[in-house]
Amino acid sequence: MSLELLRDAPALEAYSRDVSGLRIVPDxxxxxxxxxxxxxxxxxxxxxxxxxxxxxxxxxxxxxxVAARDWLLSLRPMARILDVDPVRQVARxxxxxLIGDLQRACAPHGxxxxxxxxxxxxxxxxxxxxxxxxxxxxxRYGATRLHVRALTVALADxxxxxxxxxxxxxxxxxxxxxxxPVDWFVGSEGTLGVVVEAELALLPVPPRxxxxxxxxxxxxxxxxxxxxxxxxxxxxxxxxxxxDADAFGIVRRAIDDAAWAPYAQAMVYTEEAGDRxxxxxxxxxxxxxxxxxxxDVRVFDGEQALREARRLRxxxxxxxxxxxAPFLPQGGRRMSTDWAVPYPLASAALAKARRxxxxxxxxxxxxxxxxxxGHPHQNFIxxxxxxxxxxxxxxxxxxRAVISMGGTVxxxxxxxxxxxxWLGLQLDARQLSVLRALKREFDPxxxxxxxxxL
Length: 454
Known about the structure:
CATH architecture of the largest domain: 3-Layer(aba) Sandwich
Strand order of the largest sheet: 15-12-14-13-17-18-16
Number of strands: 18
Helix content: 25-40%
CATH topology of the largest domain: Vanillyl-alcohol Oxidase, Chain A, domain 3
Radius of gyration: 22 Å
Number of domains: 2
Structural class: alpha+beta
Distance between the termini: 31 Å
């Protein structure tokens, strides 16, 4: 085999962590540059009965992109944009392509890839497919799954599997679960095979986009505004992003603007996009009716201003990663929730989660996220393994409450290794059996991404 496996200590250490904070040093690292090299590596691993875990930019918050054992397969060198077809409005890309690079390649054609994980300059297409990533614009456009048209997947034995969505409008052939093989792999976190190429649906860039940063004197008003905006007939948000008082403080520091509503207890960032002039007056009226600090509403209009707004939204998770960094050597880490509930119940769920955290003796979590989808991220910093265990106890109790409200344990980051212990809280025995059956069909020896999901 021509592909070199890296085994020196510095290289292995460089691939031993992802954003989750888990550290597992692989036995070897491969960096294939083509689908042929991926196939040859998987054939070698099959012959030697070794496990393979695929990774992109290792931005997983769930430990999905660190190798529990044997080999880590880094797909970052496979970063070619193979084609952008402006007529069909699709792009063909390798799995290591950064979402930001794809957006720049599509822009001259007046097109864009709708899913927008906040870290688009660090998130690969393969990673987004692996965990069915979403982000702020999910409110309007949905998660990654809806935008994947076809996949080429290298399976555990080194064979290639081509999956393409059916284009018929009616289909009654067999069980629904078997009608669209693309859906087997989106969200499978590398456990069924390695995505080496994807065909993605693109959308026309909206002629007008308006962003608004709306502070509120109380968190309750901010949460009520989110619900009102979702239900309003006069506005059409494509994102509704919530920042609690601590998260809003991080935003102010990031943009060096301590004078922006220093008394506010929460902030909501929203965007409206479309062909017509965004209804700014309607937004301001709705905000005022819900108790917003109307004199401190910030308007982000134009490409440069919207880029600044994107930096604003990324500031909170970036700051939490920095806060956790000093504790990683001691076994501590940042612990971020990914639960979601039906959006009208988000306020009640968040209040319940905070009561549970307080009962476990935890400080208030820094909370931000996609409240338009009922999806907040509570962020805790564990300083050592004992604090990790303490936070996990509170999170499990929170997840039981969330599920009782019709929610989910993982809305956009996947399950990985960190949350696999909670999968059974949401899925019943038959659902788990179906997952295991699909796993056995594609990976009968259990060598693909061990520890992820199951």
